[in-house]
Design a protein that fits this description.
386 residues; alpha/beta; Rossmann fold; eight-stranded mixed sheet; globular; Glycosyltransferase_grp1; Glyco_trans_4-like_N; Alpha-1,6-mannosyltransferase
Length: 386
């Protein structure tokens, strides 16, 4: 079965969506299906990868978004889809690619929209008054246009459930339990960034307004004010990086901005070495970075406004949820760090083991009604650049 997946807002080198797409595609392929992924990029390309075929169509950069591109040429995307003759269509974008559900209906292709982001949460960034009304209208249309809506958490599903959506399925994402493991703990890496007795904290994620990275700086400020010798590492980049660097310098906060970490082993070692991590984004629908941190044996403090409390599980040594801004995060971090290190690291790893990628792949294939693979009758054809 040929499962064609289309996604916008995919970072060129990293990001939760890119990670999810790669693991799901590899899982589809291992199950005997023919996955094809279409994403935007600076130029056209068509290559075979471990997640199946990946086609990149030219798409413009989104201003002030730090590298995101969009598939805006509907005619070219439609032509590409027609040539691929998909058996199933999987859409990973709640906004700019909503029209693909209608395209799929016109071409008798079963379609599925994956809720990787909260539409209601994104709309709240522009003001709370119209958010619910506009969100409900768009979500109702998406549910009507697609055969299946897949949400990764109950939090993400809530905005569809209140509309009594009948074609809704919940499937959690997963984590690579072999790559992200407590055995990656590296004392030498720790000594590079902090003194022996320092508390080493990590903010791992995109530095953009919706992720609320300033909350991590505020948490550090309140910990230092309480006499805790904490140091914050920031792994990631984004449009707020320069502003955050200036703020940290002005407040003499010990923050080390590491930028984007391209080496996956270095990232895995970092996640396993820090004492705790902060995931303050209030509209996260799942939080792969937080789950990778748990798998590495490191507890996480998350936003109580997001879906991450579901991921970290009941409040305890694996993680805590904090409301509001920095002071609550500092208090939660103090609670976690007061526990014995072996206890909190074992609890974090144990929680992550509830989320293997194979379970996610099986759930997505079931949503596609593709659990039993059948050889595709389509003849593969290379897409050529015009």
């Amino acid at each position: 079965m040929r499962i064609v997946r289309v996604a916008n807002f995919v970072m060129p080198r990293s990001g939760g969506l890119r990670t999810a797409l790669r693991h799901l595609g590899a899982g589809y392929r291992a199950a005997g299906h023919d996955p094809v992924l279409i994403i935007p990029g600076p130029d056209f390309s068509d290559e075979d990868t471990d997640q199946g075929r990946v086609i990149t169509l030219p798409g413009p950069l989104v201003p002030r978004m730090g590298g995101y591109r969009l598939l805006l040429d509907r005619a070219r995307l439609s032509s590409t889809l027609k040539s691929l003759r998909p058996d199933r269509l999987e859409v990973s974008d709640r906004t700019t690619l909503r029209w693909l559900g209608r395209w799929a209906k016109r071409h008798d292709v079963p379609s599925m929209m994956v809720s990787h982001e909260s539409l209601a949460g994104l709309l709240r960034l522009f003001g709370p008054a119209p958010a619910r009304r506009v969100g409900d209208m768009l979500n109702a249309r998406s549910a009507a246009d697609h055969d299946q809506i897949v949400c990764t958490t109950a939090w993400a599903a809530a905005e569809f459930e209140r509309l009594a959506t009948t074609n809704l399925t919940r499937v959690p994402l997963g984590v690579d339990l072999e790559r992200f493991t407590p055995t990656n703990h590296n004392p030498e890496l720790r000594s590079r960034w902090s003194a022996q007795d320092d508390v080493l904290l990590l903010h791992c994620g995109r530095l953009s307004p919706e992720k609320k990275p300033r909350r991590s700086l505020e948490a550090l400020h309140h910990l230092r004010k309480a006499g805790v010798p904490a140091v914050l590492l920031v792994a990631g980049t984004g449009p707020l990086r320069a502003t955050l660097q200036s703020e940290a310098a002005d407040r003499t906060l010990p923050v080390r901005f590491l930028g984007h970490i391209t080496n996956q082993q270095e990232l895995a070692s970092l996640l396993a070495t820090v004492d705790a991590a902060i995931a303050p984004g209030p509209i996260e629908t799942f939080g792969l970075a937080a789950l990778e941190t748990l798998a590495s044996g490191t507890p996480v403090v998350v936003s109580s406004e997001s879906a991450l409390p579901e991921v970290i599980g009941p409040p305890g040594p694996a993680g805590l949820a904090a409301p509001g801004e920095g002071p609550a995060y500092a208090e939660a971090l103090l609670q976690l760090l007061s526990l014995p290190e072996p206890t909190r690291r074992a609890a974090a790893r144990s929680r992550a083991e509830h989320f293997p990628w194979q379970a996610s792949v099986d759930g997505f294939l079931q949503a596609h009604k593709a659990a039993t693979p059948k050889p595709s009758q389509n003849t593969p054809r290379k897409i050529s650049a015009p």
